[in-house]
Structure of F420-dependent oxidoreductase-like protein:
Amino acid sequence: MTTVRLRVLMEPRHGARYEEILALALATEEAGFDAFFRSDHLMGVDPDDPAYRPTECWTTLGGLARETRRVRLGALVTAATYREPGLLAAIVASVDEMSGGRVELGLGTGWYEREHAAFGIPFPPRAERFDRLEEQLAVVTGLWSGPGFSFTGTHYRVEDNRTPPRPVQRPHPPIIVGGSGPKRTPAIAARFASEFNAALTVDGGVTGLRERFAGFARACEAIGRDPGDARLSAVLPVACGATAAETDRRAGVMRSELIRANAVIGSPSEVTERIGKVAEAGADTVYLHIYDIHDLDHIALIGAEVLPHVALSRTGASA
């Protein structure tokens, strides 16, 4: 039997109101999934979609922290371009306290240039974004380590912070870093990550996942870290139905042919089989990417017909 942490990742096609996000999070918890994650976006893939309703990622996670009881909560992934690292450290620590220690921080470089322009957020060149990501992780983890932290980098400076944010989890909330880059991404993840996410899609298939996980292992070994210390994860867009018509309807919500090409579209047994292949490639954690946040029956179906065949125990899932 396949054993993975099975999580729900929400990225609604047209955005959402908080009450809609809450309903999906509660359905995720009720169905028995390990965690509920959301994307950190202020705009949809279609920048001209007038129906898109943006919500701020960590504000909504703070609300969910008080209105859920068991599921872990996080962002996959927060854009390092959006928040200064000291503020981000305080925000995540606050939500961790509000949740009783159930928060995880996914952090990436940021990629959506049009989104940045639409909201007046600077979008540096790619190399600089990687530099900023690395410094942000150093600052966030440094502040979480305790009083007296200082840091001087190219982009950020912290001077003798004696009142650091204090998350509930020790030594700190799990940190997720990932992507498809062959060099800097695994190197940064090896230094800071509790979990390496191989990409936001499985576009390389099982072979692509194995290659990315192997690259992360090499990066860990290069700095003397045991690769087995980190979790390995992948994101899998999903459209699951009890009938062909139901499956087709759910697949129709996916926003592009690229997403459909990377997705698992089919019956519960077909979804279970695909998750098994992702696990065989090395993943111990799978995020099911959901696009229709109003379809709570979708979550219930996967929870009832897929989750029992693939999931770690709840104790194991939260480890």
